[in-house]
Each structure stands twice: as C-alpha cells, then as structure tokens.
Amino acid sequence: MAIVNATNQTFAEETNSGVVLVDFWAPWCGPCKMIAPVLEELDAEMGEKVKVVKVDVDENQETAIKFEVMSIPALFVLKDGQVVEKTLGYQPKEALEALVSKHL
Q1: CATH number at residue 13
Q2: Which residues are catalytic?
Q3: Which of 8, 11, 24, 28 has the most CB atoms around its CB within 10 Å?
Q4: Residue 53 half-sphere exposure, CB side, CA atoms within 13 Å?
Q5: Mapping DSSP to helix (H, G, I), strand (E, B) and coil, where does residue 68 land?
Q6: Cross-strand bridge partners of residue 77
C-alpha cells in the first residue's frame, strides 16, 4: 500500500477503518524530512496491516486544529477512526513499529 496524502476533505474517509498511522508534517520542518524515509520503510514492511497517511498542516489547518496539533511531526495512531495513541517528534522505525503493532 502506498502512503496517502490526505486533505481536510479526504481525511475522514482515509482514516475511518483499520489501523492508520497519521503523520502531521510540513515541507519546512527538518524532523519531518528526517522521518519521511522511516515512514516509507514502515509502509513497505507493514503496508498490509497499517495504512500510512500524511497531512500537510500548512495546507490542511482545519484537520490539524481538530487534532490539536501544536508541534510537528505529530504522529497519531487511529483505529477505526478513533485516536488510540500519539507521539511527537522524530521517532526511529523500531519505536513506530512498536507504537503501531500494539493496536493491530
């Protein structure tokens, strides 16, 4: 499964079922750029079980405000549309795998 770029309009549809890892990010954010290849790896390895969705906070402020995103990268784990866990800042792949795996 490929990483999905969600917008204010598509976010609910993209995250309403299964386990979804949402990355709230912005193009100017250094740690966001560092975590991008980690998310690509995670998607390649866990793509059948977990959907990875990216939300550009500059272009989709409505969604960022709804989730009270104050700093980025902000990573949320959603299960069937509900937030079950979140973490802030750069995370190594192992930490993200552990974060997601407990909700599968």
Answers
A1: 3.40.30.10
A2: 29, 32
A3: 24
A4: 25
A5: coil
A6: 21, 85
Number of domains in the chain: 1
**Could you say which DSSP state residue 62 is in?**
H
- Give, in order, the Cα–Cα distances in Å from 91 to each of 21, 35, 38, 68: 13, 7, 8, 20
Q: Which residues fall within 8 angstroms of residue 80, CB to CB, at 6 or more apart?
A: 16, 17, 18
d(CA 64, CA 75): 11
Q: Does an H or E element contain 87, and which?
A: strand 82-88
Give the range of the structural domain holding residue 39, as residue numbers without chain letter. 4-101
Please tell me the pTM assigned to this model: 0.97
